[in-house]
Predict the 3D structure of the following.
Amino acid sequence: MGLLVFIDTIALCLVVSSALLQRFEEAPKPDGSLSFLVIGDWGRKGAYNQSQVAFQMGVIGKQLNIDFVISTGDNFYDNGLTGIDDPAFDDSFTKIYTSSSLHKQWYSVLGNHDYRGDVEAQLSPVLRNYDKRWLCLRSFIVNAEVAEFFFVDTTPFVDKYFTEPGDHVYDWRGIHPRKKYISNLLKDVDLALRESNAKWKIVVGHHTIRSAGQHGNTAELVNQLLPILQANNIDMFINGHDHCLQHISSIESGIQFFTSGGGSKAWRGVVNKWKEEEMKLYYDGQGFMSVQLTQTEIDIVFYDVFGHVLHKWNTSKQLHRPS
Ligand SMILES: *[C@@H]1O[C@H](CO)[C@@H](O)[C@H](O)[C@H]1NC(C)=O
Ligand SMILES: *[C@@H]1O[C@H](CO)[C@@H](O)[C@H](O)[C@H]1NC(C)=O
């Protein structure tokens, strides 16, 4: 009896220590497959082709019978939401992504522009209730059996928002002390990745790790997050921040880096040099990305504002990895 209680206590501790990031379960299709769209940097009340992109997402979403949508952040421009009653939530989200195929769960992270508003509003259950599709948290995990998704709050990593905020006021409630926030987050992500048995491990954040766009690589993430992603052999990192569509196939790490930040304002006209053998797509305009995956295969497609295919990529894994 005493031993049982002891074992129970250990088991409980193990569960608690790995349950720091909130988890959600997403049922795959009956055949075990999964499909979803990824959009980033979008909330501009329909302007800058946001509505056109939304329309095409609806078309492709229907074709692929998507299970959910991922938002890579910068959900509401220019300065996030002013509160839970900000009409921007309707004008940039509810009334824009109206196609029936997009009436699925949206899993959203926060971008730096979201941190310039009332962060708590975007995280609030009030908005989740108001539009049932909406789910935005700082960092969390979605387990979809065939794949596990690790959403990471990247804005607090970036030094310049703290040291040179300029005219911007950031809502750092819940982040201080910053060092501890970041170190705890890194620990939680590392642990969750290590414990994951999913066939595909996909990490999502707002900021870039590898990008030839205007913002380039985010040094803080390269230094602090990337080593953890590499050590845990993740399959792909998906971000926004640079307002483009991009696929970098890292030779050194084997990680695929996807930027889906073409949800509205784009055409920045800044593309930096990159190794040709790694750069699979750089598109400076608007659009979005689709992902279809099974136990053995993953298929990625990028689309422009007309729904035309810009780039396709796939890879496969054996059903049972040789040990
Ligand atoms: C909207 O998309 C079209 C087609 O890519 C492009 O020519 C146009 O400049 C875009 N408009 C804006 C405001 O970005
Ligand atoms: C995967 O991509 C290759 C080209 O890289 C293509 O030949 C093949 O048809 C693709 N497979 C599927 C299932 O789309």
Summary: The chain has one domain: 20-316. The two ends are 38 Å apart (CA to CA).
